[in-house]
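Archive transcription. Copying these from loose printouts into the bound notebook so they stop getting lost. Printout 1 of 2:
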Amino acid sequence: MFIVNERTLLGGLTGAQRYLLELNKRLDLGFRRVSPKVNGKGMLGHFWEQTVLPFSVGKKDILWSPSNTGPIYCRNQVLTLHDIAPIDHPEWFGKQFSTWFNFIVPPLVRNVHKIITVSSFSRARIADACGVESEKIEVIYNGVDNRFGMCSDEDVFDVGARYGCKYKRYLLTVGSIEPRKNLARLLKAWSLVQSKLDDDMLLVVVGGVGNTKIFNEVDLPDDIPNVKFVGRVPDDVLPALYQGARGFAYLSVYEGFGLPVLEAMASGIPVLTSDKTVLMEIMGDAGIAVDPYSLDAIGEGLRTLCDDTASVSAFENAGKVRAQDFSWDIAAKKTADVLVQSQQELS
């Protein structure tokens, strides 16, 4: 029997939750789904995962833990590890969380039967940091929902009006407000180019403050002109917000995959992103890549998105083509193959 550890779904919607939800729609392996009956968040959730969950898994079962952690002593387990940011950069995270992650994940990686991760970058980092052979780690790229790029003009204008965003008169950035997303530097670069942009061009920031039990706080600059913070938005309005934007800025300094970049490309808007870690692996040459630590480079990229019509048009087309290489259907099939193969190898 295949068992899926769904503890992660008790939290808010982030990339890891979206990953599981998308694959759940497509995987047909007769899963038995398990999660804590009471409080599955924080350390109580980790306690359940280590002490209660193992007793749900029989010797002939395969447990799939799809969100970075699982029971350390369950060998007949496939673990999806999206990234190891808390190992590579513990300073971005709360002390309790980073200490726990660094304690549990390396031995977990060594003990489980198979690892799935979402990029070649993450595979290399996991193998190096956790001391396992790269052959134990299967790279399966995330996909992109076909909702992106398919909104009607009416929906795009209605959603834009709801959030005060004029069609093609704003740049969009999406992500939780946490240190690695590099939002403070994006805002500073935005402020430096204001005198060179049209007065009605906005930077729209979608996302809430990251879980303070996990992430350290971020100090954002005050009084930046033409910036609109809209906070978290319902998942069903995100495609229209993407589609109505002039361009998308995502200057994260560390990602395991970078799903918002893929969503933006699928929506047919040009992308400005970081030339570090995985983001070039996902975007390829279908957008603008800059040094995320350079205010000048970020500012120049922002000006290109706002003012260079020829480049914008070229990257709109290139991004749509590139996004077609990523499919949740393919991700689901490859994930099923790993699970079935693991069952056969352990039987």
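Printout 2 of 2:
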Amino acid sequence: MADLLDLLVDIPVVPERVLDDLPERAVGSGPYRLVEASDTRVVMDAFTAYWGGQPAFKRVVWQAEADEEERVQALLAGEADLIAAVSPAGRHLIESTAQRKIITRESHVCVIFMCNALTGVCTDRRVRQALNYALDVPLIIDTIREGAAQPLNGPLTPFHLGYDPHTPPYPYDPERARALLAGAGYGDGLPLLIDVPTVLPDEATELAQCMVEQYARVGIFAEVRVFADRPGYADLVRAKQMDDLCCFDSSPLSTYRVLREKFHSGVRGPWWQGYTNPEVDRLIDQARATVNDTQRQKLYRRAYRLLRDDAPWVFLYRPTLFWGASPQVPDWTIGRDGLIRLVAAPDRMK
């Protein structure tokens, strides 16, 4: 399998003797040992015999806080050294304080709406295309993200091997959307039921409201169902019991995983929602057997262009992500996977 290394980097490695203890027992090989863990708090102490050198801090405490305003205030008050999931509005507040800083990273996450291609109106390719043409994505980005995102031109980002920079995003073209809907038999209007969670992505309900307003302009009459239970929402989507559209954030860095698990009709993976194109299946299979990176990339890009045109998703954007930090915590980095890594030990450990 040509993409094996792409997958192995995301697979945790543990001693064979502890396999039966997982997941109840926390086992790792990093610079910190787990001391305490609950649903809202995790405490880790430095493991001084770590092979990679002295850990950066004597103790690290991770505290759950769902309310972004509370997270920001904790940072500004000196009660937190580092906070995640900062919104564009929170970013402005933190940047207005000289004693705190914002760290910015481009994301590999795709914020999208999956189309139910198994049953209902989205089984028609013309409808799925119309759902993309009917949206002014740059305006949505300005409204919801204050410009802190980049429009998608397909199901991957520049961090993925199969991403094609030459594929254009769907332009905002309401006239073309109306024509496609009329050709599909919905000239008098299209009813649409949209499912959204309240978190992951956190802006899902706002996105849905923007989409409802824009869709109405081309004769798409959308209704939104909101799900507060995020794990239950994921289970519903995994069971292929979604309505016409469902909001999701596609996050695997592996091109192989994204294409195979979400679009290959022979695999019918957990996030596959009925999309079928034999040529896409063939290209994914051929890429899997192609060791040469350049040749494999070409195959993935051919599949990518077909996926863009078939529109199994409503392609929105990849968000720019923000973290807030105290200058007391200089020695940490964020990888392109979004994971926080505490690195070399500072002169003064907390």
